[in-house]
Design brief:
The complex is a heterodimer of chains A (126) and B (135). With 126 residues, chain A is an alpha/beta fold. Chain A has helices at 22-39, 56-71, 83-91, 104-125; strands spanning 2-7, 11-20, 43-54, 76-79, 99-101. Chain B has one domain: Heat Shock Protein 90 (2-Layer Sandwich), CATH 3.30.565.10. Chain B is 35% helix and 30% strand. Chain B is built from four helices and five strands. Chain B has helices at residues 15-27, 34-55, 88-91, 106-113, and strands at residues 4-10, 62-70, 73-80, 116-122, 126-134. In chain B, strand 2 (62-70) and strand 3 (73-80) form a beta hairpin. In chain B, helix 1 packs antiparallel against helix 2 (34-55) and helix 2 packs antiparallel against helix 4. Classes of the chains: A alpha/beta (126), B alpha+beta (135). At the A-B interface, helix 1, helix 2 and helix 3 of A face helix 1, helix 2 and helix 4 of B.
Chain lengths: 126, 135
């Protein structure tokens, strides 16, 4: 399992390739947490286009990162989810919990629209 | 076709992928669809992950995976000689887990993706998970 990061001031994109299971879960958790700590960005898009395998351990580590990002009010979005990975998410009941977007661009739009909505709310409150 | 395979390895997490790839390669010689093979991979991954995570807490031990041809498909047996499961029914409940950031869905996936699942365990002697997938 490998992750390629693309980081902007508003979000980090993590492009994951390979297999997410017991042997790679700790590496996945470590790389994502390290990148978020280093960059300080609040939102994450995890692009799963090149993820070829996931099992319940891999699903658990995705859910764990979702909870971590949510805890500081950020958005955690899965994009480009291949059909067989989507069916695993569905079976685990995670499609109702995790936010997904068809493409990276769709995920970025969701994050930007959320930022503008929050800014609008802030200016209304002023 | 009388064929079988036995692999034995220590409880090291990288062996999870070795076991599922070996089982999937064995299964690919039978009349399984690609989707069936993916399901076998997940089921084997779950059974071997359970053994790696739970069988030998804080120590090392051996895990065996046996894949056998049957007339109607294949049988996969994952066996350890570790601490065993006290309450199998409880362990099989969806969402039951003793570890943080784990889903507790291992047995649920094994049951969903295979046609038969049999679990035998003796506390102190080990656990045997036997699964059948029909082609």
């Amino acid at each position: 399992m490998e992750i390629e990061f693309h980081v902007t001031p508003l979000f980090a994109i993590a492009r994951v390739s390979g297999e997410l299971d017991l042997s790679s879960a700790a590496k996945f958790r470590g790389l994502i947490d390290q990148e978020l700590r280093k960059s300080g960005v609040p939102n994450v898009v995890v692009n799963l286009k090149n993820l070829s395998f996931i099992d319940s351990t891999g699903l658990g580590v995705l859910l764990g990162r979702h909870k971590a990002v949510k805890s500081w009010g950020g958005k955690f979005i899965l994009s480009d989810v291949p059909p067989k990975i989507a069916s695993m998410l569905e079976m685990a009941g995670l499609m109702r919990v995790l936010e997904t977007a068809r493409t990276e661009q769709d995920a970025i739009k969701l994050i930007e629209s959320c930022r503008y909505a929050n800014q609008g709310e802030a200016s209304t409150n002023e | 076709m009388n064929n079988h395979m036995l692999i034995r390895f220590p409880n090291v997490s990288s062996n999870v992928s070795v076991a599922r790839i070996a089982a999937a390669t064995f299964a690919s010689f039978r009349e399984f669809s690609l989707s069936d093979i993916e399901e076998i991979k997940v089921a084997v991954s779950e059974a071997v992950s359970n053994a790696v995570l739970h069988a030998y807490p804080g120590s090392s031990g051996l895990i065996e995976v046996i894949v056998e041809n049957r007339d109607d498909g294949i049988q996969v047996t994952v066996k350890d000689y570790g601490k065993g499961i006290e309450d199998i029914d409880e362990a099989k409940q969806p969402g039951f887990t003793t570890m943080p950031e784990h889903m507790g869905l291992g047995f649920t996936f094994m049951e969903s993706f295979m046609d038969e699942l049999h679990v035998e365990s003796q506390p102190g002697s080990g656990t045997t998970v036997r699964m059948v997938k029909k082609a």
